[in-house]
Every structure is written in structure tokens, then in C-alpha cells.
Amino acid sequence: MNIIALPYPISTNRMWRHSGKITHLSAEGKKWKRDAHLMAIEQGECKLYGDVAVLLVLHPRANKDGSASKSVLDLANAEKCTIDAMQGVLFDDDKQIKMMMMRYGEPKEGGGVTVYAAPIEHNLVLVNYLVNK
Question: How many other C-beta atoms lie within 10 A of the C-beta of residue 44?
Fold first, then answer.
């Protein structure tokens, strides 16, 4: 199983910009995607081929007392930019993802998102992790 720790993702609304009928990646979106992509490569995980199962754990930003900030992205909003950044690192194309699970995790300083990815035949490992945490 591959495990990648990334910074807190940006909102999908901040990731994309619209100019007339054209939609393009914002400067902030390009930076987050590039930084996340490089962080994943530095963590040395290997690319998966074939069908993939993914678990995303979104860690809210921690307040000074350690509690979770009430201002937190919804899970679906965090998913798109995270998966886009992992293309070419954990898998060649997001079409390889045949099972995806998401949940909130423990708060951490600055927040973050942890990506767990495994071949689809190992999806029970991810399901067990999802259920038991």
C-alpha cells in the first residue's frame, strides 16, 4: 500500500478559473498541484498499474488547543485537486480508480490530506483502516 502525506488541499473553487467558455487551472491551483506532486515523489511511493482503490483522509487544521478548526473543506471538495495531483505519481490516470473512500481524520497543525492507495484486490486493507479508525 502507498501512503502519501500532503498539505491541506485547496478548494475546487479556488483551483479553477473561468474566462468566458474556457476553464483553466488557477495560479494557486498550479502551485498546490505542483507542490503536492513533488512531495509525493519525494516520499518515494511507487506507481500502481491496473485498477486502484484509494482512501483519502482529510485532516482539519488544528486550533491552538489541538481541537479541529470549524472551517474545514467538505470531503468532495478536497478530492478533485488531491487526485489530480497524484496522477503520474500513484497512477497514470484517475480512470484507474475503481473504488474511493473518504473520511475526516485527526486535526493537525496546518491541516493536510493523507492518500492511501493500493491495487484494487487489496481494497479490504483500506476498508478495514476506514472502519477501525
Answer: 8
